[in-house]
Amino acid sequence: MSQYNLDEASFDLHPDLKDRTVNQFIINDNGPSDFSFVISRAENFAETTVDAFAEHLAGELRKALPKFELVNKRALLVDGSAAVELHYTWRNGDSEMHQRQVAVFVRAASEEGTKALLLTGTSHGAFKDEWNTAFETMLGSMRLHAPVPAAGQADQES
């Protein structure tokens, strides 16, 4: 068993259990928020680079989200690790949703290999300057506990 840590506690986690934790940060307790920030995780994927992972993710989003449109894709670093941001829009009923989603690989805790950390900012309508700044600030202040260095991405491809 491995030690699993939360902000509030730690415990021994059975090795067969997978972490599907989602961290959600919102503005309003009731009704839709102008902006939210969600951290989720993905495991058991075939892609060996974060760029290939992001391409696959964009394809899945295109199939799942009504009127999906990829606005921009860019490479960046999160705490020195290679990352890719997808900025896209889609329809939720009458609302146009805007999302900025960053994928970065981190080392998996229980086994060799990697998992993807997905950092997603969501806005009803276009991102206001305030929320773009908040998203960039959170990315810039992020410290990965088990990073996969950007140089390691090239090693994984060969």
UniProtKB/TrEMBL annotation:
InterPro entries: DcrB/EagT6 (IPR014894), Mog1/PsbP_a/b/a-sand (IPR016123). Pfam families: DcrB (PF08786). It comes from the Bacteria. This is DUF1795 domain-containing protein.
